[in-house]
Design a protein that fits this description.
Helix content is 35%, strand content 20%. The protein is of the alpha/beta class. It has an eight-stranded mixed sheet, sandwiched between helices. Helix 5 runs antiparallel to helix 7 (174-182).
């Protein structure tokens, strides 16, 4: 399959990079924090599996990540802005309908999209679970402190050290990532989701928590647990199988 890379200008002047691959019904993949589209989806073979099943994959780099613009104003990273980038990409490509797969922060963005974009037929929430229903379960300011370029060991929480190491390994922009964490993010209401939904988490993903509480909060949603933790479950064949099974067998009504 030919991979086509391009950019478009989002709603507030931010250039968003994306790639497309394959032919067929479109599915937009929204990656997690500190990753990028290729790292999150190509390496774990999610893209190749989807295209082999006759889908057109569309994968943007979230603002602040990959080859997209990297503002340092925290307000640029609200879920409304992140969601508008994805919906703007769907507008740019002239999509009448599409399926949606988000992972971690991308899944949080997809909670918002699934509630407000009637073009979404099916949506998979990967790497998030019951913990998103707990207010302030993640201290974003402490995580942002860990991501500052001049942060010392004393500034970093254990989780911050993990994200910092991942960000540095992927060549991410630390200032942009810190701004992303400082954004005032209001968790979208799962009860507003209108599309068919699957909550998909690793059985050792302590960051996400169990899948069941989130699935119960989304009307008509189902859930599935696969082997692995927050990082490794993406690489499991069971993850890819669950994605393709849901996108193929659900009604998309």
């Amino acid at each position: 399959m030919t991979t086509l890379e391009s950019t478009f200008t989002s709603h507030n002047g931010i250039e968003i990079a994306y790639f497309t691959e394959g032919c067929g019904e479109p599915v937009i993949l929204v990656h997690g924090f500190a990753a990028n589209a290729k790292l999150n989806w190509v390496g774990p073979q999610v893209v190749s599996d989807l295209t082999a099943h006759g889908r057109q994959v569309i994968a943007p780099d979230t603002r602040g990540h990959g080859a997209s613009d990297k503002p340092t104003d925290p307000e640029a990273y609200s879920y409304d802005n992140l969601a508008a980038d994805v919906m703007g990409l769907a507008d740019h490509l002239g999509l009448d309908t599409y399926d949606l797969v988000g992972y971690s922060m991308g899944a949080m963005t997809s909670l918002r999209i699934g509630a407000i974009d009637p073009r979404v037929r099916r949506v998979i929430y990967g790497g998030i679970g019951g913990n998103v229903l707990i207010p302030n379960a993640l201290n974003r300011d402490l995580l942002a402190d860990s991501l500052k370029p001049d942060a010392t060991e004393d500034d970093m929480t254990p989780l911050g050290k993990l994200f910092r190491a991942f960000a540095e390994a992927s060549g991410a922009d630390l200032n942009a990532l810190a701004a992303c964490q400082r954004a005032r993010k209001v968790t979208p209401n799962p009860a507003d989701i209108k599309a068919e939904a699957l909550v998909l988490v690793g059985n050792d993903d302590w960051l996400a928590g169990p899948a069941e509480p989130l699935a119960e909060a989304i009307p008509g949603a189902i859930h599935k647990t696969v082997p692995g933790d927050h990082t490794t479950c993406l690489f499991q064949p069971e993850f890819r199988e669950a994605v393709n099974e849901f996108l193929t067998n659900s009604t998309g009504a």
